[in-house]
Amino acid sequence: MYIPLPNQHHVPWAIKALEAGKHVLCEKPIALTAKEAQQLVKAAAKKPQLKVMEAFMYRFHPQWQYAKKLVKEGGIGDLKTIHSFFSYYNDDPNNIRNQKDAGGGGMMDIGCYCVSLSRFIFDGEPKRVFGKVELDPQFKVDQLASGMLDFSNGTATFTCSTQLTPYQRVNIFGTTGGIEIEIPFNAPADVATKLWVHSKSGRKEVVFDVVNQYTIQADLFSQSILNNTDVPTPLQDAVENMKVIEAIFESSNKENWVQLS
């Protein structure tokens, strides 16, 4: 079962689906809090024959698989920092993204990508985070959020906003090179995508064939069911992502770093 419902319905309906004997592919973010996400982990543990996964489709696009592999193989030297930006403009009070009780706000809608990709590329969890969050005075959800994730061996910084000019970009920097991804998140299903690899010898453009990253994600999830293998992204990954998101808000409130480990 695929759950595309508003954020506040993710965990309740995922649990209902498990109780009905259904595999679950649930939209991001998996929950409203890390504690709620952990409830789903416990429910899934009672049904080990069923597969559950958070639907972060971007990870399955060839451009991200390429970037991940290049970093892992030392293609940009030692990974040191990641910069990501994701924004759009939406001030519609009737839009679910601007409703606090529904889990609205930029962090839960698009900032979760910035957190996820940082953990994906660093292949680990941040030790501490610092956040600065600006709330919309009417909606009471975050309209602008910036954060820094400290991975000990490097950092990741991001800004996301629901009330800025539409833009997205990711830059991954190492000691000998870098990767710039042009359309990192909602890569179109009808247009080829590209990234640039920067090195001492210049800039190389890498173009990827047209694909549908949602289809790739669904196919891989289906294969884990058919072959009874682990899902590509374990459910605990979703819990860890929520921990970071919560820490960003906590840091902003405290105006200080928040330790995660």
What's a concise summary of this model?
The chain is an alpha+beta fold. Helix content is 32%, strand content 30%.
Lay out the secondary structure.
Elements: E1 2-3, H1 10-19, E2 24-27, H2 34-45, E3 52-55, H3 62-72, E4 79-89, H4 106-122, E5 128-135, E6 142-150, E7 155-161, E8 163-174, E9 177-181, E10 193-199, E11 202-208, H5 213-226, H6 235-254, E12 258-259
Would you give an account of this structure?
- The chain is of the alpha+beta class and 261 residues long.
- It folds into 2 domains: 2-56 and 216-233, NAD(P)-binding Rossmann-like Domain (Rossmann fold, 3-Layer(aba) Sandwich); 57-211 and 242-259, 2-Layer Sandwich (Dihydrodipicolinate Reductase, domain 2), CATH 3.30.360.10.
- It is 32% helix and 30% strand.
- It contains 6 helices and 12 strands.
- It has helices spanning 10-19, 34-45, 62-72, 106-122, 213-226, 235-254; strands spanning 2-3, 24-27, 52-55, 79-89, 128-135, 142-150, 155-161, 163-174, 177-181, 193-199, 202-208, 258-259.
- The strands form 2 sheets. The chain has a 9-stranded mixed sheet with strand order 11-10-9-8-4-7-6-5-12. The chain has a 3-stranded parallel sheet with strand order 1-2-3, with helices on both faces.
- A hairpin with a 2-residue loop joins strand 10 (193-199) and strand 11 (202-208).
- Helix 1 (10-19) packs parallel to helix 2 (34-45) and helix 4 (106-122) crosses helix 6 (235-254).
- The longest helix is centred in the last third of the chain and has 20 residues, at 235-254.
- The relative contact order is 0.19.
